[in-house]
Design a protein that fits this description.
Keywords: Membrane, Transmembrane, Transmembrane helix. By secondary structure, this protein is an alpha+beta fold. The chain has a domain of 149 residues. It is built from 8 helices and 6 strands, in the order H-H-H-H-E-E-H-H-E-E-H-H-E-E. The longest helix is centred in the first third of the chain and has 39 residues.
């Protein structure tokens, strides 16, 4: 009887925890939450419906559809509008995917009243997207850090990072990494090439205009037989003489100092 009573008590405690995981919310709170989560989609549908009604009253049904198709085609063909639409699409998708990941994650990320971190804003960046999140009372950035490795595959990205603010720990930034701007096959051009071309006293006009690439390794011949003691002693004075000549030539041919805007650019040329 004692064991069965303990098992029954454990079952009751587990049921209570299950009730905490999915608490009841009021209807107004649910409506406000749905509107906030789907605000972009609702705004887009409202603009589309209003625009179609207005165009139908002016141009007719077929004219309205042709106008809509032309606007969509123009937005897809122009590069900057296409990039704008694609980047905003990923921002909207990230908000939904992050919420789904937080709800289905193994670690608890919501509070006991069922509140998830509030997603304040999502903006595109050069490497992907940045989502500002407001942690509610009862949660912290450490809770989001536990599921950080799950956010990248949920958002179809390569990596996810978490940044916190020292002045305000409630506000955290989740950075979704999709691409690396430096991961390119093309060579990176030197920004000092145009500056060196304007400097007076440059002997080679084309110097410094080549892009920065990897170092060129020249293979040297390898001798199997080691040098004898006589040859080594004979080579030492020759090496010392050549080194002294190189030093004197370098001191004689000194390049002029390149100063642009108060900065010495001799080390970069």
């Amino acid at each position: 009887m004692a064991k069965s009573t303990r098992r029954a008590r454990r079952g009751v405690r587990g049921d209570v925890m299950e009730m905490w995981q999915a608490p009841k919310q009021s209807l107004p709170a649910q409506i406000v939450g749905i509107v906030m989560r789907w605000r972009v989609e609702l705004l887009l549908v409202a603009v589309l419906v209003i625009g179609m009604v207005w165009l139908s009253s002016r141009l007719g049904t077929w004219g309205a559809w042709f106008t809509l198709a032309g606007v969509v085609l123009l937005g897809a063909l122009v590069p900057w509008t296409r990039r704008f639409v694609v980047s905003r699409f990923w921002c909207v998708l990230d908000r939904h995917r992050i919420r789904t990941c937080l709800r289905n994650a193994k670690y608890r990320t919501m509070t006991l009243d069922g509140s998830y971190p509030f997603m304040v804003w999502a903006r595109p960046s050069r490497t992907g997207e940045r989502i500002w999140m407001w942690t509610r009372a009862g949660s912290s950035a450490e809770d989001l850090e536990n599921v950080l490795e799950k956010l990248a595959p949920a958002c179809f990205a390569r990596e996810a990072r978490l940044h916190t603010r020292r002045s305000l720990s409630t506000l955290v930034v989740v950075e979704i990494i999709r691409r690396d701007p430096l991961d390119k096959t093309a060579a990176v051009t030197s920004p000092l090439a145009k500056v060196t071309a304007l400097l007076p006293g440059t002997k080679q006009p084309g110097e410094g205009t080549e892009p920065i690439t990897g170092a060129t390794v020249t293979p040297l011949p390898v001798t199997d037989k080691p040098a004898t003691e006589g040859q080594a002693s004979a080579d030492k004075p020759a090496k010392a003489t050549s080194k002294a000549k190189t030093t004197s030539n370098a001191a004689a041919t000194t390049t002029p100092t390149a100063v642009v805007g108060g900065e010495d650019l001799s080390d970069y040329i």
